[in-house]
Design goal:
By secondary structure, the chain is an alpha+beta fold. It has one domain (about 1-80). The protein has 3 helices and 4 strands. It has a 4-stranded mixed sheet with strand order 2-1-3-4, with helices on one face.
């Protein structure tokens, strides 16, 4: 899962989606449009650790170019979530 926050001097846009080629291409299109309209922007992206390699693969063509062009990009990787089955919740009920 990814949560991207695109900030310009006048606006902000949140993009929440699964990490897959279509969604990352859509994110790229939003970034390109924001650059055309505003000229400068900042991007913050948070991804799950399980999606890190897919995110890198699907953004390899455009994200490094964006950074090289001077756009501020921050990518945070969240640690894996603990599954409910791995950490059972025990509630003591009164008798």
């Amino acid at each position: 899962m990814l949560h991207a926050h695109i900030r310009t001097p006048h606006d902000a846009f949140h993009f929440i989606a699964e990490v897959n080629p279509y969604n990352l291409q859509t994110l790229h299109q939003h970034v390109r449009q924001s650059l055309r309209e505003e000229g400068q922007l900042q991007i913050s992206v948070q991804i799950d650790s399980t999606d890190q390699s897919a995110f890198a693969r699907y953004t390899a063509r455009w994200l490094p170019q964006l950074i090289a062009a001077g756009t501020a990009v921050e990518v945070d990787v969240s640690p894996p979530a603990v599954e409910a089955a791995e950490s059972p919740l025990v509630i003591a009920l009164p008798r």
